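re: the backbone from monday

yeah here it is again, tokenized this time
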């Protein structure tokens, strides 16, 4: 967090106690989130209703930190500096990166799906993964069907079993309809 604060990067923490944002998060990231959603008007209080502001950001139970990138160099520097963690990017159309994230190694979406299936007593054959970023590739590979959004990057699209329309063009609905899960 000291590194993020020193660099002037707005961020939020995902912890066991909730979501905690840096003081300027709302104002500083609104334009970035609008770019992420294709210029859809957003109210970040509605988007993140559980976000907590003006609290101590130094916490022991942080699972992930997401931060708005000023430039791609912020991601590259984080990846080099925090090489004992997984450092990734997300957001944007195609291969564009709008956000970075830092999380513990060996934590992935495929592992999360595995744990959920174990809890539910379900099998991998019953799974569909939907995503739009490189971080979703292990989940695409793990699940029975991997669906990349139309706005996904090229690597995510290549790893998926199918590509649907953009998120803002009913991408999830269209994928589920094509997979025969329901009809319009």
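seq for it, each position gets an aa:
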């Amino acid at each position: 967090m000291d590194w993020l604060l020193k660099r002037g990067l707005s961020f939020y923490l995902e912890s066991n106690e909730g979501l905690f944002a840096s003081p300027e998060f709302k104002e500083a990231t609104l334009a970035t989130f609008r770019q992420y959603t294709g210029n859809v008007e957003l109210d970040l209080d509605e988007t993140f209703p559980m976000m907590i502001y003006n609290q101590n950001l130094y916490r022991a139970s942080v699972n992930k930190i997401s931060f708005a990138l000023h430039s791609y160099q912020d991601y590259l520097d984080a990846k080099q500096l925090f090489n004992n963690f997984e450092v990734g990017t997300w957001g944007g159309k195609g291969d564009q990166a709008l956000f970075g994230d830092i999380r513990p190694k060996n934590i992935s979406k495929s592992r999360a799906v595995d744990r959920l299936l174990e809890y539910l007593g379900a099998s991998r054959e019953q799974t569909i993964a939907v995503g739009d970023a490189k971080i979703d590739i292990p989940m695409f590979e793990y699940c029975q069907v991997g669906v990349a959004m139309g706005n996904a990057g090229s690597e995510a699209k290549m790893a998926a079993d199918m590509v649907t329309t953009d998120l803002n063009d009913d991408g999830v609905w269209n994928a589920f309809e094509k997979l025969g899960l329901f009809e319009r």
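Residues 25-36 form the longest helix (12 residues). The chain has a mean pLDDT of 90.
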